[in-house]
TrEMBL record:
Keywords: Membrane, Signal-anchor, Transmembrane, Transmembrane helix. It comes from the Eukaryota. It holds the Pfam family PMR5N. The keyword Transmembrane helix applies. It is a single-pass membrane protein. One of its GO terms (molecular function) is O-acetyltransferase activity. Residues 137-423 form the Trichome birefringence-like C-terminal domain. InterPro entries: TBL, TBL_C, TBL_N. Belongs to the PC-esterase family. TBL subfamily. GO terms for cellular component: Golgi apparatus; membrane. The keyword Membrane applies. The chain crosses the membrane at residues 21-40. This is Trichome birefringence-like N-terminal domain-containing protein.
Length: 428
């Protein structure tokens, strides 16, 4: 026999039934659900602008986007809904629209990157345009870039590869600025290009590990026994504060072997406590420090932060089926294998980036240039650069021995990196 409901239970049941029928409560609940979905999506899209790297460490790109307009964004490409990944595509020869500027037109290119000036006999490397599958990159608009940067600071932080991207950006913009309205100055680790009319600075800050290290001297830093100080990002970070667009990179300098020396304490300590960590763990420490610094110092409503992935080198021709003992020297064609992944690019490092960024809520946009750059064994400076030390007879007899297969001729590949940066900045 069922126990009869008490009067209070009946009243409660009646109230609940009435509440369920109330249009006001229904509207309130619907609004709460809508807000939860909306801001839940925002958390994923704003703070997680990096998709985690896939399990096979193949490069990926951002897919989900913020419903709310991001700083500096002027529109959307409309390609995300179509499944377009701007970092996945192919190189197309384009003599009509490339290069985006001439080497001789840009006085800011370092002599390590002026390949034509230093005797490169052909210019094929300048005529390639990146074509994503299923969509087109917006054309780089120097006027839009400068007008948007008016009264602001843009800074590239990292190693010489990021300096190359910085110089590429300057070369893409400087033609719009009268000669007497622009300047380039270097102050220790900081190089500043100023466009006075726009009150704009585009800057490069030398910090190859992002953290403090014994390789922080912008001129004298060729140290084989590299040491990085734990928890020291503020040593450099104090110079990044107030920047409106920040572009980080760090990879090459970590590649000293399977372990990295980490300093606990200070470089000024008489007795230094140094431990060795697997390179992946040391790199993870730096990534977490970077994300923590961004979280504490960057205003997501006003600023944008980017991270450029590892830049590949082409030091072993056997990677692409070439002759043993050769490298990028004399290479003038692209790698056509779409699955190519050189031995110089550590998949384990890409996994670290994926793991750290996947677990973070810090708003950083990932510029995944690794795979698309891997196809470009033709684009390195090779032997066509200023040699800071006289070549030995042995080197002159064997150009492969001194070919630079790390840095890139300019104009060239790194202009594409900035086209991708432009795309993600204005059409995220």
């Amino acid at each position: 026999m069922k126990t009869p409901l008490s009067s209070s239970s009946s009243s409660s049941s009646y109230i609940i039934r009435k509440a369920r029928l109330s249009p006001y409560l229904f509207t309130l609940l619907a609004f709460i659900v809508f807000v939860a979905i909306l801001y839940g999506e925002d958390v994923i899209c704003i703070l997680g602008q990096l998709d985690p790297l896939s399990s096979d460490t193949r490069p990926i790109s951002t897919t989900k986007k913020n419903r709310e307009k991001l700083p500096f964004a002027v529109g959307k490409t409309g390609t995300e809904e179509e499944g377009c990944d701007v970092f996945s595509g192919r190189w197309v020869r384009d003599v009509s629209n490339r290069p985006l500027y001439e080497e001789s037109e840009c006085p800011y290119i370092q002599p390590q990157l002026t390949c034509q000036e230093h005797g490169r006999p052909e210019r094929e490397y300048q005529y390639w345009r990146w074509q994503p599958h299923g969509c087109d990159l917006p054309s780089f608009n120097a006027t839009l870039m400068l007008e948007t940067l008016r009264g602001k600071r843009m800074m590239f932080v990292g190693d010489s590869l990021n300096r190359g991207q910085f110089v590429s950006m300057v070369c893409l913009l400087h033609r719009l600025i009268p000669e007497h309205e622009k300047s380039m100055e270097t102050f220790d680790s900081l190089t500043v290009f100023t466009a006075k009319e726009y009150n704009v600075t585009i800057e490069f800050y030398w910090a190859p590990f992002l953290l403090e290290s014994n390789s922080d001297n912008a001129v004298i830093h060729r140290i084989s026994d590299r040491i990085v100080r734990k928890g020291s990002i503020n040593k450099h970070g104090k110079y990044w504060k107030g920047v409106d667009i920040l572009v980080f990179n760090t990879y090459l300098w970590w590649m000293t072997g399977i372990k990295m020396k980490i300093l606990k304490g200070s470089f000024d300590d008489e007795e230094k406590e140094i431990v060795e960590l697997p390179t992946e763990d040391a790199y993870r420490m730096a990534m977490k420090s970077m994300l923590r610094w961004v979280k504490l110092n960057m205003d997501r409503k006003k600023t944008r932060v980017f991270f450029t992935s590892m830049s590949p080198s082409h030091g072993k021709s056997i990677d692409w089926g070439g002759e043993p003992g050769q490298n990028c020297y004399n290479e003038t064609t692209l790698i056509e294998d779409t699955n190519y992944w050189g031995s110089d690019c550590r998949r384990s490092i890409m996994r670290v980036i994926g793991e750290v960024f996947r677990g973070s809520k810090v708003p950083i946009t990932f510029l995944n240039v690794t795979q698309l750059s891997s196809y470009r064994k033709d684009a390195h400076t090779s032997i066509y650069k200023k040699q800071w030390n006289p070549l030995t007879p042995e080197q002159e007899a064997n150009p492969v021995s001194y070919a630079d297969c790390v840095h890139w001729c300019m104009p060239g590949l790194q202009d594409t990196w900035n086209e991708l940066l432009f795309t993600k900045l204005f059409y995220p």
